[in-house]
Amino acid sequence: MNPKVDWFFDKATPWQEEYRKLRTVVLASGLAEELKWGVPCYTFQNTNVVLIHGFKEYCALLFHKGALLKDESHILIQQTKNVQAARQIRFTGMDEIKQLEKTVKAYIKEAIEVEKAGLKVELKKTEEFNMPEEFQQALEDAPELKKAFYALTPGRQRGYLLYFSQPKQAKTRESRIEKYFDRILDGKGLED
Description:
Strand content: 15-25%
Number of strands: 5
Distance between the termini: 31 Å
Number of helices: 7
Structural class: alpha+beta
Radius of gyration: 20 Å
Number of domains: 2
CATH topology of the largest domain: Aspartate Aminotransferase, domain 1
CATH architecture of the largest domain: Alpha-Beta Complex
Largest sheet: 5 strands, antiparallel
């Protein structure tokens, strides 16, 4: 147990008891415990394997390369259609955790083996993401924007493409593009 992570398990949340149980289960695998993104993250040789996090309706274990796991029990969930590598096991109570404990341990063991083998998730290339017409036009109209956008890291580019593509109405897409124009010029991503 890493004392820097204790605060996460000590704070009052609807999932406090479940978090503590999940911590015990994950630590039994021998992974190192760290604090990343404000949640407990468990690593193998400094590589992220699984983390614990919670939402309103459930708490979850998120496997960073869950897409590579066999998922023989069919319990892994892709959070959204845009999540490429990570998969969750969701829990709505302590009984589920206890019931699935053996299976969860097997999934953690498999995730560690994925890391030992050096396997990587084949991610979609940035150019495979949808480029909204409005953003394509903005890039053509402003060469400085185009240059700045293509100078961003592929992850930042994908973030913008996903965000700009989400709205159904062109007006909303245009508004988003306008709002983030200067951030792109400054070399920043959506969340920077």
